[in-house]
Amino acid sequence: MNRTLEDALLNLTTMVKSCSDIKLEDRDSLKLQHMLNVADTLHHITGDVRTRIEHALSGEKN
């Protein structure tokens, strides 16, 4: 795995851990909207990374 992808996955892991600290008391809609946007982006990025890894494992070219 190239270094850039490893760094990106590490950064994503850090973001996910920080998002897991949300509490029900957090009523700041701007903060919650931002976290929702981050979650959507993470979902999209991880799906793309997963697809690329699966293609690499199967020997297909991207």
Would you kindly provide a written description of the structure presented here, covering whatever features stand out?
The protein is mainly α. The chain is built from 2 helices and no strands. It has helices spanning 3-19, 29-58. The protein is elongated, with a radius of gyration of 15 Å. The protein starts with a helix and ends with a helix. The relative contact order is 0.11.
Topology overview:
Blueprint: H1 3-19, H2 29-58
Helix pairs in contact: 1-2
Number of helices: 2
State Rg: 15 Å
- Overall 3D form: elongated
Biggest sheet statistics: none
Beta content: under 5%
TL;DR?
The protein has 62 residues and is an all-alpha fold.
Features:
62 residues, elongated, mainly alpha, 2 helices
